[in-house]
Amino acid sequence: MIDFTGKIALVTGAASGIGAATAALLERHGATVWRADISDGVALRLDVTSDGDWAAAMEQIMTDSGRLDILINAAGISRAGGEQSVAAVAIDDWRRVFAVNVEGTLLGCQHAMRVMGAGGGAIVNIASTAGIAPSATLAAYGASKAAVHQLTKSVAAACALAGLSIRCNAMLPGMAETPMTSAMPPAYRESWEAQIPAGRFADADEIASAIAFLASDAASYVTGTGLLVDGGLINRPVVR
User: Fold this and answer.
1) Run of H or E residues at 170
2) For labeling, which of 12, 21, 110, 131 is most exposed (least CB within 10 Å)?
């Protein structure tokens, strides 16, 4: 059984969705979890696009907990009001999605590498099947998640080159029950469900379980890779 007793974890995007489910699961398995989000009501108010916010969060964690063993970069957004095609997406929307999803993940990895240092640890970044399978209407989100997947490999390589015992992996969910997908029009949702061999969206806890595996000692020989948790979606030929 996965055991996080004595581990200190930071989970971004922890106010809802996959981040909240992951934070709760890590706690159930013994971890001390720092929940971070841009929303109020969590231990750390963190804008992942702010280098200063990251520095302050790490300082508080080190002051109160003494170290950081696990970072889960779960904060992420899609375009407000729904995604658009490549031809229609506004450049400001594109930049905002990349700022949160890519730059936020980069900053988290940079700060975690400094704090974890020679003591080692595990970083799990949330990418997406949207970063692998092309979609005409998920241009910004898909491109940003492809970048997160590639960044993950670079971070893992950099840690190895520096002699740091820090593993970095990506988890690539398909469609999951989150606030981001709850706003989907029914017909659009049904079109996605019809393409998933499992026949449904994942529960957030199912995604959290995969994240927990990558963060755990059970994955001690796993780094620089991506784990697909998509109900078989990526094997389907059509992505709308």
Assistant:
1) strand 166-173
2) 110
Q: Which residue has the tokens 């970044």?
A: 125
Which helix (H) or strand (E) element contains residue 32?
strand 32-37
pLDDT of residue 208: 97
**Which one is catalytic: 4, 54, 94, 141?**
141
Distances (CA, A) of 62 to 10, 59, 143, 168, 228: 11, 5, 34, 20, 32
> Please, what is the Cα angle at 32 between 51 and 69, to 5 degrees?
55
Give start and end residues of each alpha helix (H) in 172-215. Answer: 179-182, 186-193, 204-215
| Integer-rounded Cα radius of gyration of the chain | 17
CA 222 to centroid of chain Cα atoms: 17
**Entry pTM:** 0.92
| Nearby residues of 91 by Cβ (< 8 Å), 6 or more positions away | none
Residue 237 has pLDDT above 60, yes or no: no
Q: Is 141 a catalytic residue?
A: yes
